[in-house]
Amino acid sequence: MAVRVLISDGSSAIRNAIRRHLECIGCDIVAEAATSEQALTLFRTVQPEIVTLGADLSYGDESHPLELIRLIKREMPETSVLMTARALVQRDAEMFQMAGALECFIAPFEFASLWRTLSMAHPQLMAGAFATMMSATAALKASRVSP
């Protein structure tokens, strides 16, 4: 069974990049959000196993990424939270992880690091990524066969 993911970021380009990476390793993208309010509503509705949160996501007057991480972890402790950002200082990354984020990733995202982090928390992704890689390899070999 695929791992269900909610992708949250204010940038559609970032959401698209994350989606492409996660779909390649067998994730099922069940929802996307452009604001923290949308992310929280969708989180409660679709109950994903993984949530990506943009550190620079549009947050309400009294909201902050740390509060959203804490809320997610309080409501569903088993949910893996990944922080994403265009830039992030070490102190902020450490605060996000102390609040419950599994890891912080800076764009452009390194596919291998993302996959490695998620496959440790969700071992079923390892099999999905391996199957995808084998299918791609077989397709490449088949395209090289001359008649």
Characterization of the model:
Helix content is 52%, strand content 19%. The protein has one domain (3-144): Response regulator (Rossmann fold), CATH 3.40.50.2300. The protein starts with a strand and ends with a helix. It has a 5-stranded parallel sheet, sandwiched between helices. The model has no long low-confidence stretch (mean pLDDT 85). With 147 residues, the chain is of the alpha/beta class. Helix 5 crosses helix 6. It has 6 helices and 5 strands; from the N terminus they run E-H-E-H-E-H-E-H-E-H-H.
Write the layout of secondary structure elements.
Layout: E1 3-8, H1 12-24, E2 27-33, H2 36-46, E3 50-54, H3 65-75, E4 80-85, H4 90-99, E5 103-106, H5 111-121, H6 124-144
Parallel strand pairs: 1-2, 1-3, 3-4, 4-5
Helix pairs in contact: 5-6
Number of domains: 1
Kindly report the average pLDDT value.
Answer: 85
Please report which band the strand proportion falls in: under 5%, 5-15%, 15-25%, 25-35%, 35-45% or over 45%: 15-25%
Characterize the biggest β-sheet. 5 strands, parallel
Architecture, according to CATH?
3-Layer(aba) Sandwich
> Alpha-carbon distance between the termini?
38 Å
Could you estimate the helical fraction of the residues in percent? 40-55%
The overall strand count is 5
What is the number of helices? 6
Output the structural class.
alpha/beta
| Rg, nearest Å | 16 Å
What is the CATH third-level topology name?
Rossmann fold
The CATH homologous superfamily is named: Response regulator
Which regions contain 5 or more consecutive residues with pLDDT less than 50? Answer: none
What is the CATH first-level class name? Alpha Beta
Topology as a string of helices (H) and strands (E):
EHEHEHEHEHH
Q: Strand order across the biggest sheet?
A: 2-1-3-4-5
